[in-house]
Design goal:
single chain; about 220 residues; alpha/beta; UDP-N-acetylmuramoyl-L-alanine:D-glutamate ligase; 6-stranded mixed β-sheet; 3-stranded antiparallel β-sheet; 9 strands
């Protein structure tokens, strides 16, 4: 039996358990991975919104990453809410040259609509996108990053998620530099239970990548 893939989730804590680091741990564990965490912020939130946020220090975030990587080791990394430009920078420092797949969910706004990243933090995403194996913006995040053309000009691989777009048929589009886009289509599921969907998807992709699967197959299985 192969050992479980060691997945490091770098993200904020969600007190309701539906999103953030709690969703990451549940997803990684359900898929057979070993979940480790570096918490960037503590939030008081639920499905209706974010009531309070306390961002941790960049030094503490770095120490959590170092503690996991130096002892347990890591097979893949998932990045979610970062909390500040300073944390984004220190995470990039730690992951530069780490040599394992990195999935970056550029969290800016919670599903409820609450803002989770300021302009300085979003600007700091640039370096992380170049480090990441895959960046997974939703419709609003993709627009804030300049859209398809701006992302393609950066030369990064990204999955443009369509779950929050209009229409009954939704598309997720994978863009890999030098390749034709890959499109997944699905009928919209009518539900109000959408809290944490982006966290769950990115953690699932990271776990499958940590198992040694290819990018397209990892996305297929995660979806």
């Amino acid at each position: 039996m192969n050992p479980p893939p060691r997945i490091l989730a770098i993200a904020g804590s969600d007190s309701s358990g539906g999103a953030g680091i709690q969703a990451d741990i549940k997803t990684i564990t359900m898929l057979g991975g070993y979940a480790m965490t570096a918490i960037t912020a503590v939030t008081a939130q639920n499905t209706t919104g974010v009531q309070a946020v306390e961002v941790l220090s960049p030094e503490l975030v770095a120490a959590q990453i170092d503690a996991c990587v130096s002892d347990i080791g890591v097979d893949a990394v998932k990045i979610g809410m970062l909390g500040s430009a300073q944390i984004a920078a220190v995470v990039a420092d730690r992951l530069q040259g780490i040599g394992v797949p990195v999935v970056f969910d550029p969290v800016m706004v919670a599903t409820s609509g609450s803002v989770l990243a300021d302009d300085a933090t979003i600007s700091a995403f640039e370096r992380l996108m170049t480090i990441a194996t895959l960046t997974t913006p939703n419709v609003a995040e993709l627009a804030a990053l300049g859209g398809d053309e701006a992302m393609a000009a950066r030369g990064v691989t990204f999955l443009a998620k369509g779950g929050d777009a209009d229409g009954d048929i939704l598309e997720d589009r994978l863009f890999v530099p030098g390749a034709e886009p890959r499109v997944w289509s699905a009928k919209r599921i009518q539900t109000r239970h959408t809290h944490g969907t982006g966290c769950t998807l990115s953690s699932a992709i990271a776990t499958h990548l940590g198992m040694g699967l290819g990018l397209t197959e990892s996305i297929d299985k995660a979806r």
